[in-house]
Design brief:
single chain, 84 residues
């Protein structure tokens, strides 16, 4: 299942995740810090979505209350709800 999410309060503009039985198969993030987001995307591919959420949820960025990893955790939570 493919899910697209519009992040809020961060530099990235769009996140697209592909889940298969709760496992992250692909992540594409538009905007933001390209190198960091490519690294995060590659690290979570093959990981259970719930584990990725656990690791990234609540991470701030500078003085902001959220970050791209935190927003990705929200996207994954919403994608899991749709997958059920």
């Amino acid at each position: 299942m493919t899910y697209t999410y519009q992040p809020r309060g961060v530099c990235s503009r769009r996140m697209t995740v592909v889940l298969e039985d709760g496992i992250i198969r692909d992540v594409r993030i538009e905007g933001g810090c390209n190198g960091n987001l490519q690294g995060i995307s590659r690290l979570v591919i093959g990981m259970p979505a719930r584990e990725a959420i656990r690791r990234m949820k609540g991470i701030p960025c500078g003085g902001k209350p959220s970050s791209c990893p935190d927003q990705l955790s929200i996207a994954l939570e919403q994608a899991l709800k749709q997958e059920e």
